[in-house]
Amino acid sequence: MTEKPITFIVLVLPAANEIQDQIICEHRLSYRHITPPGECFYHHLKIEVFNETSRENLTYGSINNSDHNKKIPCPQQIEDICTTFNGNFTWFKGANLLPGHHEAKLLVENAQKDDEDIYTCICTWTHNHKLYNSSGSRKLFVKEKAIYRNVEITSPTSKEQLVDKGKKTS
Hints:
Blueprint: E1 2-11, E2 25-34, E3 40-50, E4 62-65, E5 70-73, H1 76-84, E6 88-93, E7 96-97, E8 105-108, E9 117-127, E10 130-142
Parallel strand pairs: 1-3, 4-10
Antiparallel strand pairs: 2-3, 5-8, 6-7, 6-9, 9-10
InterPro entries: Ig-like_dom_sf (IPR036179), Ig-like_fold (IPR013783)
C-alpha cells in the first residue's frame, strides 16, 4: 500500500454574497484507488478555497529576468496533464483571453511594463467523455531597461594595437 499526498488549490471568483475576503473553507478527504494488478493507493486530498485577492500568492512562481523577450512556461504539472490526455492549451493575461496562443510556452515579445500581469495557461482535456480544465498561473515582472548616456570608450586609445609575438600587453 502506497500513500500519495495531493494538494489542490481552488480559486473561487465572487459569485455570491457569502464569499468574503477570507479563506472560505478547508476540506480533507481520502480516496482509495485499486489498480488492475491489485495495488492499492490512498490519495489524501486537502482542498482549500481562497478568494480572488489571494490569487497572486497562488502562482507557480514568477518570471523576473532582464530578457527582452519573455518566455512564460506553463507549470510542469499542467503541461504533464495536457501531454498525457492530449489536451489543448489556452492562455490568459489577467482575465483576458490571448487568442491564437495554444502552446505550452507563451512568448511575450519586446516586453514592456504594461505586460506585467498574472498569466494563466489552461489545459482543456477529455477523460471518459467528460471535459476537464487544469490551470496554472505565473506572475510576469518586467525590469526597466538600463539606459547608458554619454558612454565613452577610454581604452584602447588608437584603432590598432601592435604587440610583439610572445610579449604580454599591459
